[in-house]
Amino acid sequence: MKYLHTMVRVADLAQSLGFYRDALGLEVVHQINVPAGRYTLIYLAAPGDREAQVELTHNWDEHAYSGGRNFGHLAYSVPDIYAATQRLLDHGVTISRPPRDGYMAFVRSPDGISVELLQEGRPLPPAEPWVSMPNVGSW
Amino acid sequence: MKYLHTMVRVADLAQSLGFYRDALGLEVVHQINVPAGRYTLIYLAAPGDREAQVELTHNWDEHAYSGGRNFGHLAYSVPDIYAATQRLLDHGVTISRPPRDGYMAFVRSPDGISVELLQEGRPLPPAEPWVSMPNVGSW
Questions:
Q1: Reported pTM
Q2: CATH topology of domain A5-60+73-119
């Protein structure tokens, strides 16, 4: 038995690739377009860890998705949480929970999926601008 | 960068272990009880694939969780989809989408989290009782 992926529905494919690929840093592993079913599937994974994937399902005729409390978040470890969070900021992503502790950050996808980033190994020394950065919303 | 886990919130820990561990077949990798915060975290993973985990968060004072459409499902491959689905049935889990094709099945956790099972490699030959089993609800 093996974990394959977590599937999330995305209302806007370009915005979602901007988040998951460009800002978060995942790589597109595989894409399937099904015009007859009017949907597109895109599988992404962390570089160097291509087997554990996130599947984006884009139904061409659905344009908004609600969230629920039963799902919590997707979590990834990163080699440098400050660099990872800065890249998210540079792509216009709001940092819901900045890594004030040098260890943990949360952001949300365009569809409200919460994503946790955790520093690999030990926390980094606390540093600005993160230490002074307030929380925004929930995650 | 590396995928760590998908976190889901669970209202009833015993019921959730009955689903994720006993019926689905995941193994408990790690458990953290935090009485001061009144929550428990349990990390499970497929046997032999312990790095890609599902994290169950049980907040002791929360007793029901709603779902949303932005989250789709968790997916696992299994060596024998009929055996895996039979084990779910034996534990009282409703099969939302039986593996009529010898390839794909869906069930829901006690909190409504959809879980997809996919046959490893090629589909198995279609077989009863699966071929005649209708869908139940959505997934």
A1: 0.97
A2: 2,3-Dihydroxybiphenyl 1,2-Dioxygenase; domain 1 (3.10.180)
